[in-house]
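Protein Entry — a single chain follows
Next Lines — sequence and tokenised fold
***
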Amino acid sequence: MQNKQDYALLSLEQLKKAEKKIYSQAITAAVIIGFLFGIIIFGLLKNGFGFLYVFIPAILIVMVYKQSKTLHSKLADIREEMNYKQATNKSNQ
């Protein structure tokens, strides 16, 4: 399911596009997590400790959080490769 990509084969422009895409996905994951926390808070204030308002969003938060961790790992790999390519381009000039 995971798409393991070798970022060393990509050009600097392709790395920038990949960084922008993954950063956007990470922001979306953060918004979803915040929304689910809001559902939990709302459910606790309105209905008490219910299955629908607490456990289901909590399970979804864990799933989104795990995906977010892999996105941050990919983002770190991309930024590391970008820094390397930028440093080699400066040394070649």
Observations:
- DSSP finds two helices and no strands in the chain.
- The radius of gyration is 19 Å.
